[in-house]
Amino acid sequence: MNNTRLTLRHFGLKQLGLILITATALIAAPAPTKITPAKDLIGFSIGEDYKMANYTQISALLKKWETESDRLKVVSIGTTAEGRPQYMAIITSPENHKKLEYYRNISVRLSRAEGLTDDEARKLAEEGKAIVWIDGGLHATETVNSQSLAEMVYQMSSRTDAETMRFLDDVLFRSHGRPESRRRRTRRQLVHARRRCHQTHLPNAAPPLSQVHRSR
Fold first, then answer.
1. 57 with 182: CB under 8 angstroms?
2. How far apart are CA 79 and CA 86, in angstroms?
3. Least confident range of 29-38, 64-73, 99-108
């Protein structure tokens, strides 16, 4: 009888231990981040055949994702020669977002190195975060870069794997694309795709030219 009680008690402790471990793991794990896919917002996925997001569409994606993720902040860094706003996406952990100005000041002080001793510089380097500027689409013929930037923002704002979370804790990503070159290249690329589709008897693979010419 005593052996039976000990066995049941031991079994109960094991079960309680498993419950506590599971609960702890669930608390420690990052909550899933629901970000609306590009296809649900602009009608196609980034990188889809015969599709290319223009600057207006990518700007709309960034603004929507900013409302859905606490990892993303979209800021204007001025206007272009043609009067379009230039947006920059800042991607990092929510904790780092709370101290953006603090980390910016550290980066400025280290880059200028004015009035800093070696020990002070080392201390700032330990406290600061790596700031990575990713620029794409400077030249009008660079079609992949502007699209990959949008996909990168989506992935870094939605993924919850351990490596992505480590990147977000250690790094401040700043992503920026060029409006004018992206707009011009998008039109040309879609016009070319439409003509090629007609030549290969695939009329439904690309948008009609009337839609292409309205592209901004």
1. no
2. 5
3. 29-38
